[in-house]
Specification:
about 500 residues, mainly alpha, 17 helices
């Protein structure tokens, strides 16, 4: 998707130019494109779709030191920090939190872009796709997928306090949406993804590699169904998830676990969705913190919170918890995830091992061209195993899926030898509770330090009443750690609640 990455810096912001209506200016053409003259052909529609993808950048970049990754990485028990992050110790987190405010803002900006594309396809689709009519369905599928992914993330951060916005807001009367109800964000995502799976292509050509496909939609739909089924105790959701997972074709595990974190092996057969980082030599500015669509912008992935880079971040870097270090001892996956340094506590190396730092800023910050893997086949296999168990399916089939992951791990040593760890699990086991624990333990190791998988798993299990996070050992390095029941949701930004009286703030904030 390198060609697509370049487009990220070239997308237009479509604005309506305002001119005075005297005779001297009324005939003057506006500077740049206006909405009325845009969305007219395949090229312009593709640029608009790329604008939705571009917003994913904002969740993974340095942005003047205001990186957002801690929101989904720190709350679990795999990572910890001695720095001042409320998501780690749940103390002091409040509705004025700047990063949570940015997360909310960027999320709804992405959704607004998706809704605009969907509206313009509906309005202009009959003539805008005269040369490549197949793009009409592809673009609609991409917009639906990206909106669904964002709704899923919003639910995992704010719960039902976050509003569901399905249409472009063009009228001030519609600018104050109410909080959603229950699992409405998930419900909409599941419905959108079912449609997207019928619209998206099986694959893209080399110049567009990295754009979402039919498999992407099926994988995300199945994942969200498992999440909804967990909190609603709905067997039908798990059955539907299996239907979605079983419809995936052509996907497979990469031979080596480390292949998933190597810039040279991006968008591989295991990957369904990645943040498309880039190496914009001489124009990548990791300190840029604005919403401009300039060629000079940061689309590299910031990972300096693992390596204490820049040095002035002090104690605000993240390191693997002692329990996690002990958990993965002897497992070849540890070689690609951590490098223990007990003195410095700088020990997370996932995505950092191959030296894929952006060339133009090597001395300043840990900005990488390595794609962040958001959704991959290993995640799906373990979710499928979970859906089998939760729907009353064959336990041996579920355990066999876990063992696929473990076999790949054994074959992933850096010296090419076969490891004895992790050994296969007993396929004769029938205790569903035990097998679920096996699945969650495997997810904890396999998906460590990636996209909040661990925290989101713990969160949904707490909501389902399967575990109680109020007495859970989070392995926090913070002596003032205190998780309370309301911390399962993060607060909506205070300015949003003040301005929009239809929003209901999460309890406790």
């Amino acid at each position: 998707m390198k060609n697509i990455k370049i487009l990220f810096g070239l997308i237009l912001i479509v604005t309506l130019s305002i001119v005075s209506c005297d005779e001297a200016t009324v005939e003057v053409d506006p500077i740049g494109d206006t909405e009325a003259g845009f969305f007219q052909n395949e090229e312009q529609m593709t640029m608009a779709v790329m604008g939705i993808y571009q917003k994913v950048t904002f969740f993974h970049t340095f942005r003047g030191g205001n990186w957002l990754s801690g929101i989904w990485l720190l709350p679990g028990d795999n990572l910890t920090t001695e720095g001042d992050h409320g998501y780690e110790n749940f103390v002091g987190i409040n509705a004025q939190d700047g990063k949570l405010g940015d997360f909310y803002r960027y999320a709804y900006q992405l959704i607004a872009r998706a809704n605009t594309v969907l509206q313009k396809i509906e309005e202009n689709g009959d003539f805008a796709y005269s040369l490549e009519p197949e793009l009409k369905d592809f673009h609609r599928g991409e917009a639906l997928f990206l909106r669904s992914w964002m709704n899923f993330r919003l639910w995992n951060v704010y719960g039902s306090a976050a509003p569901l916005i399905n249409e472009r807001i063009t009228n001030l009367d519609d600018a104050y949406p109410a909080s959603s109800q229950g699992t409405e964000l998930l419900d909409q995502a599941i419905s959108d993804l079912a449609e997207a799976a019928t619209l998206l292509p099986d694959s893209w050509d080399g110049g567009n590699k990295g754009r979402v496909t039919k498999n992407s939609a099926l994988a995300l739909q199945g994942k969200i169904l498992v999440f909804r089924g967990t909190v609603s105790n709905s067997t039908s959701d798990f059955s539907d998830a299996l239907t979605a997972f079983n419809a995936i074709t052509g996907a497979d595990l990469m031979p080596n676990y480390g292949d998933n974190f190597d810039a040279a092996k991006e968008n591989n057969i295991e990957s369904f969705f990645e943040f498309q980082a880039n190496n914009q030599a001489q124009v990548n500015n990791p300190y840029l913190d604005n919403d401009a669509f300039s060629v000079v912008g940061d689309i590299g992935a910031y990972l300096g919170f693992y390596s204490k880079t820049p040095g002035w971040i002090g104690s605000n870097f993240y390191f693997a918890s002692p329990e996690f270090v002990a958990l993965v001892e002897g497992d070849p996956r540890a070689e690609y995830s951590i490098k223990v340094d007990a003195e410095k506590k700088i020990n997370v190396v996932k995505y950092l091992r191959d030296g894929n730092r952006v060339d133009s800023w090597p001395q300043w910050t840990e900005v990488h061209r390595t794609n962040i893997r958001i959704l991959r086949y290993a995640d799906v296999l373990l979710l499928k195993a979970e859906a089998i168990i939760r729907s009353g399916g064959n336990a041996a089939d579920a355990i066999a899926l876990i063992n696929q992951i473990r076999e790949r791990a054994r074959n992933s040593t850096t010296d090419g030898t076969m490891s004895e760890i992790p050994a296969d699990l007993d396929v004769a086991e029938t205790d569903s509770d035990l097998i679920l624990e096996w699945i969650y333990n495997e997810r904890r190791i396999e998906l460590a330090f990636e996209e909040g998988h661990r925290w989101y798993d713990l969160r949904r299990r707490h909501l389902a009443g399967e575990i109680d996070l109020t007495n859970f050992d989070f392995n926090s390095a913070k002596p003032d750690f205190k998780f309370e029941a309301h911390n399962i949701y993060f607060p909506l930004p205070s300015n949003e609640v003040i301005q929009n009286k239809n929003l209901v703030q999460n309890t406790g904030y």
